Amino acid sequence: MKFDMNKKITPKRGIQLQRRYGISLMRSSAFLLNDYIKTFKEDDYNRYSVESTLRGLLSQIQFEWEQDCKKPVLKPIPDYGDEMVVSEWVKIVETGGFIDYDGHGSLATNKFKSDIVIHPSDITFFKLKLPSWATHVVWFNR
After folding, report:
1. For 78-107, how does the pLDDT look when each residue is reduced to its tens digit (9 = 90+)?
2. Where exactly are the structural domains of the chain?
């Protein structure tokens, strides 16, 4: 989906844009807030305010993630991409083998790829819980 400023935004299109760009903006904001927190001293009131905002943002990201994972769109796994078991992918991510810059994955079953995109930071930074139906990840390198 390409964003076109001249295209009329219908309610359905608005939801599509919010799903596509809203989560990305929330993720970016969370990273920025996390870095911003480090500029404050431990007992600074402003630090508490920024931490509170970050906690709220992380809660919203978790909520959106859970909503997206309830109704995935499944398609056959493509010929490209590396299919691996979720536990294997998580272990690679936790040891630093994959970072966001390397690419992204799609949650999958043993036969189908979903429309749910996952990044290494979803595990390491956002601590998102993977849905029970996701037994595999199809990894796409940059």
Report:
1. 999 999 999 999 999 999 999 999 999 999
2. 11-70, 74-141
